[in-house]
Automatic annotation (TrEMBL):
One of its GO terms (molecular function) is monooxygenase activity. Keywords: Flavoprotein, FMN, Monooxygenase, Oxidoreductase. Coiled coil: none annotated. This is Luciferase. It comes from Caballeronia zhejiangensis. It holds the Pfam family Bac_luciferase. Residues 30-354 form the Luciferase-like domain. It comes from the Bacteria.
């Protein structure tokens, strides 16, 4: 048989599923974990942000207590010294698949999204289908996969593979996820034939609790959007105009509309997430002073290395991001007082963003301040229906 992807069958459609609960929120709220040294900011300004598992476990429990809907981490393949500089930026990193999955044992409600480069090396869809079914069981339906295709030539070279052409990568990803979905939906032995995969009497158990795990894709190109609206529940987008907020807010409505229209053509509804870096202090002046201090401590060597990697990438989503915007990091920058941050999140919602995947410079205290000063205002603004997390694993208030 040929594999098929049941685009009409999503965990979001099942009342009681964690994804269904997240989709009921006016603005989905996620945390992008700093599982690599330096997090998202190429700055040597002192901070506590740490790539180690214990730190990220504390952040995840902190986010869950604050009612966040999901967490996930970055997947990357870098050599010794990472991007270089004094920091050796991102030399130390945890594997996103293993680290995020391990959080299932210490959480109860929050969705856990693992990023996997499914086209690198020896990944077989039967392996990932079994791993995913197991993680779905352990997490009570809270696990999902951010399936990415790899856009950096040096990463492909690490696996001894030539880099596959951009659009062809998405064709192969569709084939891969079609096999996954077919295995997850079946309660029988399957013989599957595709151009790259031949499975005889393949079977996966246990059956996922809500039809299948959550599917995510990060993209910005036409081919990537076409893949994402057909095969994902959440589409992780970047600003097509760079990280400046005013530039981004002007460009995002057309970008998000394109994704919604693409999903409508295939009779699906997806949600978009964007990754703002939040710099929030009691006043605008204090927030910009904090931002200026971060930028003043830029690690120029690491910044050079990070920007150079971009020349080895064919990703479409980051083409308008400027060198200096990489210091603070993130898809776009939200800087200001709590009230100003809420106004900017409202503007993102009006621009078609269904959710945010937040990053911070000094994660633990900055997330705590966000919870204390911003979250109550989000409820008042109608962007959230809850403030703190519920004791029930699948309930929002």
């Amino acid at each position: 048989m040929s594999p098929t992807f049941d685009g009409a069958s999503s965990p979001a459609d099942i009342e009681g599923s964690p994804l269904h609960a997240a989709f009921q929120q006016p603005l989905i709220r996620g945390l992008f974990l700093p599982i690599q040294n330096g997090g998202w900011s190429i700055s040597t300004l002192p901070r506590g942000t740490d790539w180690r598992f214990d730190y990220n476990a504390r952040l995840t429990k902190q986010a869950e207590a604050l009612g966040f809907d999901l967490v996930f981490g970055l997947a990357q393949w870098l050599g010794k010294n990472g991007h270089g500089g004094e920091m050796k930026y991102r030399e130390q990193s945890l594997d996103a698949f293993i680290a995020t999955s391990a959080l299932a044992a210490i959480t109860e409600r929050i969705l856990l999204i693992s990023t996997v480069h499914a086209l690198y090396g020896p990944w077989h869809p039967l392996h990932l289908a079994k791993f995913g079914a197991t993680l779905d069981h352990i997490s009570n339906g809270r696990w999902g996969i951010n399936l990415v295709t790899g856009h950096v030539s040096t990463e492909w070279a690490m696996f001894g593979q030539p880099m596959i052409e951009h659009d062809e990568r998405y064709a192969r990803a569709a084939e891969f996820v079609g096999v996954l979905d077919t295995l997850w939906r079946s309660d029988a032995n399957l013989t599957i034939r595709t151009p790259r995969w031949q499975l005889d009497d393949a079977f996966v158990s246990p059956r996922p609790r809500y039809r299948r795990p959550v599917l995510v894709n990060a993209t910005g190109s036409d081919a990537g959007i076409d893949y994402a609206v057909r095969h994902s529940d959440l589409v992780f987008i970047t600003s097509p105009a760079g990280a400046d907020f005013d530039d981004a807010i002007g460009a995002l409505p057309a970008h998000t509309a394109k994704i919604r229209e693409g999903a409508a053509r295939v009779e699906r509804r997806v949600r978009t997430l964007i990754n703002p870096t939040i710099v929030c202090r009691p006043t605008e002046r204090e927030a910009y002073a904090y931002r200026d201090a971060i930028v003043a401590h830029a690690d120029e060597g690491a910044l050079d290395g990070f920007v150079a990697q971009g020349s080895r990438s064919d990703a479409k989503a980051w083409s308008k991001h400027k060198r200096e915007q990489r210091i603070l990091g993130g898809n776009l920058h939200l800087i200001g007082s709590p009230e100003q941050i809420v106004d900017k999140l409202l503007a993102l919602k009006r621009a078609g963003c269904d959710g945010v995947q937040l990053t911070f410079f000094d994660f633990e205290p900055d997330l705590a301040y966000f919870g204390e000063a911003v979250l109550p205002l989000l409820v008042e603004a109608g962007l959230r229906r809850d403030f703190a997390g519920s004791n029930s694993p699948h309930t929002t208030t």
